[in-house]
Records
---
Amino acid sequence: MTLLSIENISVRYGKLTALRRASITVNEGETLFVTGPNGAGKSTLLKAIAGVVTPREGFIRFNGAHIAGKAPEDIARMGFSMVPEGREVFGGLTIEENLRLGTGMRADKDQAARDLEQVYAVFPMLKDRKDAQAGVLSGGQQQMLVIGRALMASPKLIAIDEPSLGLAPKVTDDVYATLLKLRDSRGLTLLIVEQSATRAGLTGGRMVLMRAGQVALEGDARQLVKGDALRQAYFGYGDH
Amino acid sequence: MTAILQILFDALSLGSLYALGALGIALIFGVMRLVNFAHGDYIAFCVFAMLWPSIDAAAIVFAGNLPTYLLIPLILCVGAGLSVLSEILVFRRFRNANPATMMIASFALGFVIKYLLLMLYSSRPKSIDLWSNLSQQIEIFGARIPPLQVITICTTIVILLALTAFLKRTRYGLEMRAAAENFTMARMLGVRANLVIMLAFALSGMLAAAVGLILVTQTGTVDINMGANIMLVAFVATVIGGLGSLPGAVIAGFLIGGLSSLMQAYLPADARPFRDAFVYGAVIVMLIWRPNGLFSSKAAKQRV
């Protein structure tokens, strides 16, 4: 079943066109990788879904409702959880406060308390330091924290922008292992922007390759990484 | 010893006033990067709200006649209401404008409030007798201290403790701190932007009302420019404290108050009229030493 469908959206920053009539669908329970070179519009795509930028044209439907042009907090409250590029932990808040922020939209406080324990069970390191300021954590620990924070909202879909950015390969392995475990145990849908197509191929799932604000190629991640089409689409056809 | 005690009380009570003013500005700057220059006019508005509008020289006390336990909440509500109203009517339209545009808008709003008061009450300062017995000095360990100073200091301590408890212990406080650090990310976690900003404006307006009440009790006069000086010092304090840092604003407010009182007491008599020049000279030196203020805000620190 389609959980998120993006139809022909365009986003411009002044004269710069970041997305031109891009269309992508995400199905419930799947892992979709969005990859592509710098400036392809990957981050803009996530920002448009999250409501941080407003598309000039096109539709975005999430869980049956139109969300293009809605406020970020309203979209978040519908079950869309975003982990933006650069992680964006609240460095001045404690680790537990960061996690509790994710639960503001929920009425079921008891369940939220249980979820906090579950997040701590997945990331014991966070529990050990729950009263420390989040700003002192290492990059990998911060990535765990923001994933935990996104989970606290009990979302239907988590979108993550460059989870491996600035992390050692070993730490990236851990992050992905955790993400897949969570996807399977909670029935989450994952939308991951990942510059490294190889990483997407290793993890598996569906993959979309973006180039110049549009979808250039779409298919099974493992298949695409093996073939030649990806490299061609990534760098353009025969222009070098 | 007696002199020191007297200066200490002077410094703390003046610092309290500056700290409350600075806090009112820092709260709003934190959530929306707006330096609200209308804050001084909120202070004056709250005080005028105790009077019946008239251009007579004699003040017609109206709400000011209410018993204290009703008057204080009423004036706090006036401050909160005016502040929230200005966010809904004015600042909301500038939410995505650059900080300079927002600052100009706040200047304009300040003038509107000031001239509204001018039309309703005329520009003549009026005297009002509000809790004047609090200014009669009493002796504490030989120092002659007006009870108002003690009350000002105690009130400020209570306000600071209550605000800290609100920010640290409540859901809205948590959301406000998060919004001050990274507003977009907070919204992506479901924090309601309008609610948090209106809350910050309400708190800021109540702080303006508290400053107004203390000022008018101290001076016994009501004047449309009564908030201007406090506003200026409070703004300087928020800059010294590090824009966006609430503890910084409070500490810097007390520092300026302390410095002013010390200079008032110890500068040679001939230099005393130029006290403010020395105070602001110290501010310049301080800013050369730490251009980002004593406590640069967490948002700025995070980028390093």
---
Amino acid sequence: MAIFKRPGKARRATLLPIAVGTITVGAAFLAFAPTASYAQSNNPSSLSNYGYTGSYIYGSNGHGNGNGSITNVNLDPSTIPFGKSLFVENCASCHGNYAQGSSRAPNLQGLGAATIDFWVSTGRMPLADPTTQAVQKPPRFSRSETLAIDAYVTSLASGGPAIPNVNLQMANEANGSELFATNCAACHTITGAGDALASGVYAPSLLSASPTQIAEAIRSGPGNMPRFGPNTLTDQQVANIAKYVTYLQKPVDQGGIALGHVGPVTEGFVGILIGLGLLMLAGLWIGGKAK
Amino acid sequence: MIVTQATDWFDERLGIAKFTRKSLNKIFPDHWSFMLGEIAMYSFVILLFTGVFLTLFFVPSSKDVVYNGAYAPLRGTKVSEAFASTLNISFSVRAGLVMRQMHHWAANVFIAAIVVHVCRIFFTGAFRKPREINWLVGTGLLVLAIVNGFLGYSLPDDLISGTGIRIAFSIVLSVPVVGSYLAFLLFGGNFPGDSIIPRFYSLHILIIPALIVGLLTAHLAIMWHQKHTQFKGKGKTDRNVVGVAMWPAYAFQAGGFFFVTAAVIAILGGLVQINPIWLYGQYVPYRVSYAVQPDWYMGWLDGALRLMPSWEVQAFGHMIPNVFFPSVLLPGITFTLLGAWPFIEKKITKDNSEHNLLDNPRDVPWRTSVGVGLLTFYVVLFFASSTDVLANSFSLSLNFVLWAFRILLFVVPPIAAYIAYKLAKEASDVPGIGKRKRALIISRSEEGAFSTSESAPRSIAHEEIIEELPEEVKYHSVLDGTEEYVMPTAAAAVSTVINNVSVDVDLGPLPSGGSGVYQIPRSPRGSAPNGRSDEQDHQGDLDE
């Protein structure tokens, strides 16, 4: 007895081995699917030092810290003349020779080294178009040039946060994740991917920010971002957030291709276009066509 | 031999031979678009399998625990048992994550397949008499699938899904008069609450799947009983079904397709990350993440919420909450309209005859155009649920994107409907449309003259010959139909001895035993012959 009478139809019998082969691959993956393994693992015993060391009173003599999780970068006074020449060349046309501000740009005196360093080191300053939100671009100055500009502007007036140097070894990721969810995710999204806010303003992606830039942004509140002073977040907490954001830049994507960490939008497209799309093509292959 | 004995044993007790014989001979029209519903059904089977696996490890509880599992960045934080157990499934249970991701992908594919299946039914007019009941059952299945998808998405108690529950709670609250009672009844008190996750759990894994299984069984049984629709074509009429037989051809086709579905979902589940709840963290009411979207099948509702202007509507001296219109009224109208469509169309066309031959979408331009218009409306709403992602990706102002969608929502559907109407009209006027085109052969003679001729039609060897199923014959056993049969003219029989009296039972046709194309007649339903009186036996357009 011939199950497949017609040679044209016998082709369909080949479907089964192919399907069985594919499912075997799937099953093999399933059987060998990796279990827990982490790039970033904290020693659990260190969880006890949550480091809520007493909050630091802001602005008295400089920028000390609780337990060394954040240390201040000392600016070299000898670089001030070099910084001044850079400032006059690149910044003074809007901010004025002494950073006193103009009708086009704000006064920078007394804003602190962290503020100046953040804007210059993220490439947002110098600004091409002052009418829109400053966009992040490759920084124009090297690290030493940036520090020289910081030194010059800081020398004009005292006050403001210093440039923080974050010691990630002493920071706690888990506490950072909770603080991040509470304080940052409402704009930057929970994965740090950033998103559009109202009227053309956006919360930038955090995925290329350095720990120092993260701490500077928290302390200085650039643009629309609120400023979180030491009475709101301690140095230790800032370091914890910086550590968690650093983790988010290379998170555990245990499940495979991450799809940009923007959640169900991309997942839906993959499910419909690739998942259902492949199945419809398979259906087209198996089923009959118009005759 | 053992098989024969076993089947005989069952047949003597249950009389299954006749049904089995009939089932093995069931004719399935062979067209790829008939596979769409199968994708949905097979995804549902995968949902059941992976879901059972997940229930072994998931703890449906809002009780606080300190997480101390394998995922380092959350160790030492306070999470709910539901969240902690989902983390454990993802990181500590062998194959747990791939199962979780397959379950989620299967849900996305399941509902997508249902939607495409509904489109197929709609645009080909397969819902017309006598299939209105099955259309209603199918509408119910779509609603249940969406609801169950949302419930399952909410179970891990992560930041994103918790925001979703918060929105759902507000939506229920917005129902005029009974809103607060209804919300407290469904959620067991105010939001947030300890009973939400356990309730969602029993709904998600027990009550709604049971309803889906019940309705799906009814859906299939009705389809089985009424027999498939079929596209117009050679030898196909309103009174027969032409296609391949269940055994062996279709069984292999469908079985293979199940494996393909399982494979695609396993590949997605194994390679593409979905819902990484460890990055989202535990839901806490005072925390919120920007850019929160629901899964795609809720996207149109989310989009409607985003696009709704902040109007405050007063009625009977009370304000009707703004949320009510996009999130209660819109889905209410949507699913009522969807379920009622066969009856609405009947009102318009006044057509009460039975239809087993499908329309080509171009044959009924007005229905196609209405369908395209409505579908476009929901597609625009669906895209509106990603206003923030679109604004961010294309560096546009969020407000601009929002207003663009508000305008597009009312501008695009009529345009799409108009284009669909024009295209359908145009297409149905083209002579020979839908027929296989023959190649034009340009030849040059020795003198240099060119001439064109059509290529020969496909060789007859590939033409499918439609055979009648063999008429019945003496029955020996279900699987062993080759033995002792004679071709009788009258319907034949099994001789079963009951109380020493020999009773003949009509068993219907023999197993086809082949993978050719067969036809079987349809029996008209009902006693009123008015549907059949006007010789509906028109042959398909393509028939010649």
